Amino acid sequence: MLPTQCLCTKLRRASRCVTRIYDEALADVGLNAAQFSLLRNLQRLQSPSISMLAEAMGLDRSTLGRNLRVVEGMGLVQLGGGADQRSREVLLSEAGRQVLERGAALWERAQQEVALRLGADKRAALMLLLDDLETID
After folding, report:
1. Partners of 90 in the beta sheet?
2. What is the reported pTM?
3. Residue 80: left (phi > 0), alpha (psi -120 to 50), or beta?
4. Residue 99: CB partners within 8 Å, gap ≥ 6?
5. Angle subtended at Cα 90 by Cα 38 and Cα 26, rounded to the nearest 5 degrees
6. Rounded CA gap, 105 and 108, in Å?
7. What is the DSSP string of 29-70?
């Protein structure tokens, strides 16, 4: 890789490296990190609207919509009725619950692997920095 002092480039590179670890860990359940994260957020929010889910995940609606179509096609979620497209509910299917259950230990293993590579002090510092970066507007 070319050396750089660009924050954006460094963050994107780091994100790709970390995502690769999660993607490899989740391969056995047929999901990537973004898809698994979407299902986990959906589980935590219990049938949110598309807009609520997008806001909770920090995604724009079009990105979430593309990701939802994939997991819906896999039978992991269902879109419920609503007054319009924005208010449609997203429901976790039984197959989605099963995938989450099977993938939980795989996700946790990836979490531990990254944490071990960083060490406790760097992980704690990174979490603080990421909290700050999430609120830059």
Report:
1. 79
2. 0.90
3. beta
4. 29, 30, 31, 36, 39, 76
5. 25
6. 5
7. GT--HHHHHHHHHHHHHTS-BHHHHHHHHT--HHHHHHHHHH
Token couple for 131: 């909290």
Query: Domains in the chain, start-ordered, CATH in brackets?
Result: 17-134 (1.10.10.10)
pLDDT in tens, 56-113: 999 999 999 999 999 999 999 999 877 666 578 999 999 999 999 999 999 999 999 9
* CA atoms of 67 and 8, how far apart (whole Å): 24
Neighbouring CB atoms inside 10 A of 97's CB total 13
Reading phi first (left if > 0) and then psi (alpha if -120 to 50, else beta), residue 13 is in alpha
